[in-house]
Amino acid sequence: MSKVKYIDIGACGDQLPEDRHECPASEVYAMSEKHRITNCPACGGSDFAIGRLVCEDCGTAIDGRFALSRLAALDESQLSFVITFLESRGNISDVERKLGISYPTVRSRLDRVVRKLGVVEDDVQAKRRAVLTALQNREMSPDEAVATLRDLQ
User: Fold this and answer.
1) 121 neighbors 110 (Cβ within 8 angstroms)
2) Can you name the residues that pair with 54 across neighbouring β-strands?
3) Label partner for 60 (CA 20 to 30 A): which of 3, 51, 96, 142?
4) What residues contact residue 99 under an 8 Å CB cut-off, 6+ apart?
5) Level-2 CATH architecture, domain 73-152
6) No. of helices (H) and no. of strands (E), the chain
7) Is the distance from CB of 92 to CB of 107 less than 8 angstroms?
């Protein structure tokens, strides 16, 4: 049986010494995004489970094994991108403008988020993406791309 190593992270995000159980900060507050932990500090793994839920109002704690949201798997830049994408209601032109990046960069970041979240594309979406990639790489003319995309509908 392997030994479990507990690392206590205070409300301020600092790792606490084993003999301390309170954050050096005088007030308790929700951890900000900059204190979000995405990888295990001991082994580097990213498959986390929540072990304790605490009510901020009354202090009641529930111990158990609770799953994380799929969005918790995203790193800070990916989460920021998703928030911008949602604020733009999925309008890629708005995302381009807000982030100051090109259409292919927006698509690339979106594709990475989709893969990381394990969202499955259907066959038509995958074929459309392949056509757009071929067009971007100049492996297909614009007329061929338009014809191929029309055939997919």
Assistant:
1) no
2) 61
3) 3
4) 81, 84, 106
5) Orthogonal Bundle (1.10)
6) 5, 2
7) yes
Residue 58 token pair: 């009354």
b vs e for 64-80, b when ≥16 Cβ sit within 10 Å of the residue's Cβ? eeeeeeeeebbeeebbe
The predicted model scores a pTM of: 0.49
pLDDT reading at 109 higher than 80: yes
- Residue entry with tokens 């014809």: 147
Rounded Cα distance between 90 and 82, Å, is 9
- Return residue ranges of the chain for CATH 1.10.10: 73-152
Listed in order, strand segments (DSSP E) in the chain are 49-54, 61-67
Residues 6+ apart with CB under 8 A from 57: none
Do the Cβ atoms of 95 and 63 come closer than 8 Å?
A: no
Give tens-digit pLDDT for 53-87: 888 898 888 888 887 788 877 888 899 999 999 99
Residues constituting the chain: 153
